[in-house]
Write a structure and sequence with these properties.
- By secondary structure, the chain is α/β, with parallel strands linked by helices.
- It folds into two domains: 227 residues, Glycogen Phosphorylase B (Rossmann fold); 178 residues, Rossmann fold (3-Layer(aba) Sandwich).
- Helices cover 39% and strands 18% of the residues.
- It has 15 helices and 17 strands.
- The strands form four sheets. It has a seven-stranded parallel beta sheet with strand order 5-4-3-6-7-10-11, sandwiched between helices. It has a six-stranded parallel beta sheet with strand order 14-13-12-15-16-17, sandwiched between helices.
- The longest helix has 18 residues.
- It is globular, with a radius of gyration of 23 Å.
């Protein structure tokens, strides 16, 4: 797999001028594709620390643009991001390492201008883990350096309280921290040619809470290749053997980054109640992923004596096998965009149980395809899980079939990636 240059944090401009590795990726952008589209060089910039749904979306988008005839590559900011994609990316997806920090509200303008010149891309697409990730200086440099600069907002922005607080009678007083938060968010909308929100909910929050312009804030949902993610009896049997799950167990699954917003602590507490209510049933919850709260979740599992029921598998490359091994998909999140893992699980035939936040109600649109539960509502979550495990095999199969058909109809990956590609090709 090709490897790009290593940009040191200090004196990076000098090193950039001496480096020639990136120029090896340059292609003739004057060639025609399909007789009508110009071949373009596209940098999909990512800052992942662990591999999850947003990172899979970056890979899918890059590969789609390559297959469409463009010279696309993943620009990995930082060594840890590069290592994440080294493990997950296919040989057909070029990786370039940018050894430069892009933490929240940081980044030097002239340094990024030099880096972008060396990358020599026509279009830059920045997959953002948070609204404030990067900086206004970074956005300005990206805008000046490319024919088109697009950001993708994968996670819902933080909800803000009312700007005014009661003071004396009907006279209100401004909450300055809310005003500051709104301003900081709004500034991130200025320089991108457009911002792609992965759900209608994310788009509406960006517009109403942070003042993003409606015409340049576009909702293009995440999608899934239903041909790749589909029920598979062989994978199911192999997965259950590998994960040491009894053949007749009822298996819940969750694939996510182990971070606070995923609500795994809430999920573990609810699962503990479920196990107590069904002591004779073989109930198992498989959690795939890695992250900052892994130790905390392990301690909670031990404290509740759930070691025989909840298994932390760590990062898995066999994600299709993972979904195929599960009967239900549990997503107890507190903040999301439009979770790709939920789409993949439903496409594979898992019956979903998820919190009704952000873009999730856009996926689970009725009880005919799954359960929606208010955030952090223990009673309602346990009730939904009880209904799920009480279903007959036939009822579960019918729900599984409806969930998959719903995903195929609304969230087919190629149709949604084609919409993003059309925005990229507007740079011609």
């Amino acid at each position: 797999m090709p490897v790009g240059p290593f940009y040191p944090v200090a004196n990076s401009i000098r090193f950039l001028k001496e480096s020639t590795t990136i120029s090896n990726y340059h292609t003739d952008n004057s060639k025609m594709v399909d007789g009508c589209r110009m071949k373009m060089r596209v940098a999909v910039l990512t800052t992942a620390s662990t591999f999850s749904g947003a990172e899979r979306h970056s890979l899918q988008l890059t590969e789609y643009l390559i297959n469409r005839g463009h010279d696309a590559f993943l620009a990995c900011v930082g060594d840890s991001t590069y290592r994440v994609y080294q493990e997950a990316a296919r040989e057909s997806v070029p990786l370039i390492l940018i050894k430069e920090e892009l933490a929240r509200n940081s980044g030097r303008f002239f340094q990024w201008m030099a880096i972008f010149r060396e990358l020599n891309a026509d279009v830059c697409i920045f997959e953002k883990p948070t609204l404030l990730h990067g900086s206004v200086r970074f956005d300005f440099a990206a805008r000046l350096s490319h024919k088109r600069y697009i950001t993708i907002q994968q996670v819902a922005p933080f909800h803000l309280p009312n700007l005014w607080t009661p003071w004396i009678g009907r006279i209100g007083r401004i909450k300055h921290w809310v005003l500051n938060a709104r301003l900081r968010g709004y500034l991130r909308s200025i320089y991108p040619h457009c911002t792609i929100a992965v759900s209608d909910s994310v788009r509406q929050n960006l517009i109403s809470l942070y003042g993003f312009p409606r015409k340049r804030t576009i909702a293009i949902r995440n999608g899934v290749d239903s041909g790749q993610f589909q029920p598979n009896r062989t994978m199911r049997e192999n997965g259950r053997k590998e994960y040491r799950v009894p053949a007749n167990a009822l298996v819940f699954g969750t694939a996510c980054r182990l971070s606070p917003e995923k609500g795994l602590d809430f999920g573990v507490a609810c699962f503990h109640q479920l196990v107590r209510k069904f002591p004779e049933s073989q109930l198992v919850w498989l959690i795939a992923g890695a992250g900052s709260i892994e130790t905390e979740i392990r301690n909670q599992i031990t404290r509740l004596e759930l070691e025989n029921h909840i298994h932390l598998l760590g990062f898995t490359k066999k994600i299709q096998q993972f979904y195929a091994s599960c009967d239900f998909y549990l997503l107890p999140s507190r903040r999301e965009g439009l979770p790709l893992s939920l789409l993949e699980a439903m496409s594979t035939g898992c019956c979903p149980i998820a919190t009704a936040i952000d873009g999730i109600p856009e996926i689970i649109t009725s009880k005919s395809v799954g359960w929606l539960v208010p955030q952090d509502d223990t009673a309602r979550m346990v009730e939904a899980m009880e209904e799920a495990v009480s279903m007959t095999n036939q009822e579960r199969e019918h729900l599984s079939h409806r969930a998959r058909k719903h995903i195929q109809k609304v969230f087919e990956l190629e149709d949604l990636l084609r919409q993003i590609a059309s925005l990229v090709e507007m740079a011609n």
